[in-house]
Amino acid sequence: MTSPELVSEFLDWYLAENPIYAALAGAPGYDRTLGDFTEAGILARERESRRRLERFQGARDAGDFEDEIDRELVMSTLRGGIAYESWPLWRRDPAAYVGPIFSSMFSPFLQRLSGEAELVDAAVARLAEVPDVIAACRANLDPALAAPLLIERGLGQARTARRFLTETVPGQVSDEALRARLATAAEPAAAAFDELVEFLEGFRAEGTWRMGEELYSTLLREREMLGYGADELLRRGQAAYDELDARMREIAARLDGGSGDWHAAITELQDDHAPTLADMRAEYEAETERARRFVRERGLVTFAEGEECLVVPSPEFQRPILAVASYMPPPPLSTSRIGHFFVPFTPSSFTGEQVRQRLRTNARAQMPSIAVHEAYPGHHWHLSWMAGNPRRARRLFRTPYLVEGWGLYVEKLMHEQGYFTTPAQELAHLDFRLFRAARIIVDTSLHCGDMTIEQAEKFMTTRSSLTPGTAKGEVNRYCAWPTQAPSYLTGALEIDRIRDDYLAAGRGDLRAFHDALAGSGGLPLGLARRVALEA
Fold it and tell me: Which of 27, 70, 342, 521 lies at a CB distance of 3.0 to 4.6 Å from 393, suitable for a disulfide?
């Protein structure tokens, strides 16, 4: 079998074995099941992944250049999954079960790729399987491997499930009879989550969230194709931090009454924020539209036909675990080009002071950088444009080292183009970049055993501008999601280098570079370089 045939066969198998992912990607026929979360099912998928990787390695005909890139992309995905077998999240983290359930219930009603009656039919079918998934979670979690921190994160999500399933999701349905049917079907699922909450409250986890240097470095090399490991990543992060720190001191000194203390300057800037969460959303919406106009006027990219970015409050199930803005792209296998920029609302249980701190970390001087990163020409532009790639593998598999790297790269691009119009906005732009350098330092140090959670939180509040509450949420995220936090600055710096080489080689102008690199997908950085410079 040729390599292109292997890729096509693999994608069919992968979608069938991951129906939640398939449905969210817009593949038809997968929206009525959650899939097999049992130990036997997971182990069977692992065995099959190994077999398929061996077949790719033995394939004789790699096809043309684009076929070869597809093959390498699939192989990096398989190698990453196989590396993770030594760190089985499905035995360690309840989020491996809770998160997919929430996404499967929320996203279809947000994206609305089919009619309301069909959406409800599919949701009812999935709800019927929720108790089985929760039972698998309870059976698979291993006290010797699961860490208390991860259990607590999952518990926070699980506690929101009853309201989310019985009120929030049915609330997305306009037809009264369909809404009532969905709420009734949700009750057994909500009851299963009630039992999970009780189970997790009594769960005595004794494991660690620290991944360790060996696996961390393996993922960087095998999945991300970086060519170096954790030690080199830490060195690069520290060098970038020191450079940004010096630049920020210079800009802070130019502010009115500035002393060169950028941390104090950012703290003062954060006092200028929207008065309420609703006002914050409205201001983000206005900033998103300003960024879109600017990008179009400058001709920096080509826009996908029919693209639209909706600026909405973050979903309830995200609020306990995600303290920053985020983005959900259009389903890449669908014709939709509508994405959602989630503004980081707080849980309803937050105090007035906690809400104020969330508003402060979304201050007006910071909004331009965040809107650029999440929307134009950041994630929304990239992923709506990428969805037009004719190659299924490119639309399905993407790494944060390209996707998040792109989001940070365009912040710098917009600074170069003059989008940030005040010293305060420029300082905020650099602060976000320094924050990503701090993430590299903290993430590698946490997982390689060189930093405690308390030290990490202190670092993020004293060496970046995060408030204590946001820093706590961020560090918890790093513990639960190793190697993701460094992707932003690591990817941005590599995209800078690829751009320099592309322009120096005379392959095209800035717009052509953006269209080509972003349109190729969310490839591992080594493959992205090849596509930009060899295609």
Answer: 70
**DSSP of 16-28:** HH-HHHHHHTT-T
Tally of domains within the chain? 2
**Cβ-Cβ contacts under 8 Å for 35 (sequence gap 6 or more):** 17, 18, 19, 20, 41
269 belongs to a structural domain: yes
Instruction: Identify the domain boundary among 163, 180, 201.
Output: 201
CA angle 392-393-398, nearest 5°?
A: 125
Torsion 488-493-494-498 (CA) sign: positive
- Rounded Cα–Cα distance for residues 524 and 128 (Å): 37
Question: What type of residue sits at position 45?
Answer: R
Spans in the chain with pLDDT lower than 50: none
| Cis preceding linkage at 377, omega within 30 | yes
Indicate whether 519 belongs to any domain: yes
The dihedral built from the CA positions of residue 383, 377, 325 and 284, taken in this order, carries a sign that is negative
The owner of tokens 């669908």 is 334
Residue 403 gets which letter from DSSP?
H
Residue 466, pLDDT score: 85
Pick the last residue of a domain from 159, 180, 201: 201
Query: What's the CA dihedral at 177, 178, 179, 181 to 10 degrees?
Result: 90
Instruction: Give the tokens for residue 445.
Output: 């140090």
Q: Are residues 129 and 175 in the same domain?
A: yes
The Cα 149–Cα 480 span in angstroms is 8
- Model pTM score: 0.93
- Main-chain phi, psi angles of 224, to 5 degrees: -90, -15
Range of the domain at 499: 230-534
pLDDT at 210: 97
- Torsion sign (Cα): 7, 12, 14, 20: positive
